[in-house]
Amino acid sequence: QDSFELRFRAHEDVRVIVRYRQLAPTRDARYLLLTTKPWRRPLEHAVYTLTPHGVALAGSNYGLQSDAHGILAFERTSFMPPDDWRFRWEVPPR
Questions:
Q1: How far is 32 from 83, CA to CA, in rounded Å?
Q2: Chain CA centroid to CA 18, Å
Q3: I need a labelling partner for 36 at 20 to 30 A (CA). Which of 6, 18, 51, 92 fits?
Q4: Starting from the edge strand earliest in sequence, which strands make up the sheet with 85-90, in order?
Q5: What pLDDT shows up at residue 89?
Q6: DSSP letters spanning 8-61
Q7: Percent of the chain at pLDDT above 90?
Q8: Can you give 67-82 as a three-state secondary structure string?
Q9: What does the pLDDT average to over 11-16?
């Protein structure tokens, strides 16, 4: 299990980019967003991306935009997530 520690001063602006990859035994996933609730204040700005490899998105509870490279994302400002991000995919027929 990987972990890291970030140290920064109070009121300091910090940009953190986390990349995460995991094999999935099913065709759906949940990205935990509700863990921000104990902070009692919204994220100033958040961008969440999904890069599908060999699969097609079949649904997401957050509306996603696609870029020219097929990367899917949603972006929010002053974001207090109302729910975790749930999405599912399908394998296109060959």
A1: 8
A2: 10
A3: 51
A4: 28-31, 85-90, 56-60
A5: 95
A6: --TT-------------SSSEEEE--GGGGGG-S-EEEEEEEE--SS-EEEEES
A7: 53
A8: CCCCCEEEEEEEECCC
A9: 84
Instruction: Work out the average pLDDT over 51-65.
Output: 93
Question: pLDDT band at residue 93, thresholds of 50, 70 and 90?
Answer: confident
The two three-digit tokens of residue 6, written as one number: 């970030």
Buried b (16+ CB within 10 A) or exposed e, 53-84: eeeeeeeeebebeeeeeeebebebeebebeee
Identity of the residue numbered 64: L
- pLDDT of 1: 64
Between CA 43 and CA 77 the distance in angstroms is 7
